[in-house]
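User: Here's a protein and a ligand (flavin mononucleotide). What would the complex look like?
Assistant: Let me lay out the input and then the predicted complex.
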Amino acid sequence: MTSVELGVFLPVGNGGWITSTTSPQLPATYAYNKSVTILAEEMGFDFALAMAKWRGYGGPSQHWDFTLESMSIMSGLAECTSRIGVWGTVHTMIFHPAVIAKMVAGIDEISGGRFGLNIVAGSNPADLGQMGLWQDLDHEGRYALAEEWVTVAKRLWTEERVDHDGRFYKLTDCMSNPKPKKAPPIICAGASDRGFRFTIKNCTGSFLLGSNRDDFVKTALRAKELAAEAGSDDFKTYGLFTIVPGATDKQAQERVDYYNSGVDAEALDNQTREYSMDPSLKQNTMANRFIAQGESRNSMSPAAIIGSPETIARKLADIVINGKLNGITVIVPDFIDDLKTIGIDVVQGLHDHGVQTNAYAHQHGG
Ligand SMILES: Cc1cc2nc3c(=O)[nH]c(=O)nc-3n(C[C@H](O)[C@H](O)[C@H](O)COP(=O)(O)O)c2cc1C
């Protein structure tokens, strides 16, 4: 039996990850995300992750014009849960590592050691530039900054006083107390080879995506291969999956068709424009995914898994087993009803296909 962690990508931006006026118009509120996280915990999910985004895409759906700040939201969710991992995201370019080191120590205490940190080395010049915080670094430079950032944060979590004289940060006799009980898991979704290398060297795991089944498996195996080359055998890979369930395959496809009938082309164009501004566009894999989605006028990821719980379980199990994934992170159109379908029916189907989750064990008295 293969074992995987199961997580939910919290909809902290309005509309979730479907850019449409006919999809569920999810509110970017703490109350909604709290209901989702408590439900996920009750079903035995392993973690809830909040993204970080600062600027929306407008259009008739006002896509992501409302987004909750990741660390503060996860801090609240840490207080109102007791078992699930609470993972927050920061852009390394816009926060000093000593500021986040202390925030992490705080959420570590609130959560009793359940906090995980997702770091983003990139984004784009509009998202961070609107507040004058985009630094004019090329792709390599952004990962060099992230590398120094993580080094400083880890030192502050373990050393009493830190002196550091680097390219991006200078710390003099810097104290950071309290400390987290142990350094939190650090995850990064850098998907270029440079991104993977950075992640393998500095983090505990990698978030990854695929544009279709084969690409997913290839990318996941590539991450494991690079990790093995670097001598890291316990490096974890977490796939991010957009999933649209239905009672039957046909009903699931009808949902997708309906959401696509209301695709918000204006918001997609704004997203495409925003990511096209990145001077290192060639290397930014996420930017290229967004641009391709915009051009194809798809309201959601073109790699979405669409079907009955049985179909979804079979397709997910295939990617998990063949890509040797350690975790599944899910996006769904509706994070209450659809999440229940994933947490109960798909989890059962995964079990039947040889993929074990804590959610299954939790629901069956394990
Ligand atoms: C699961 C997942 C979560 C991500 N979260 C964020 C986020 O919160 N904010 C953000 O700006 N980018 C986010 N990204 C984008 C990546 O961090 C990264 O910038 C992108 O994959 C480009 O990597 P590259 O520069 O190595 O090509 C996420 C990607 C994935 C797959």
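Summary: The domain at 2-147+183-363 is CATH 3.20.20.30 (TIM Barrel).
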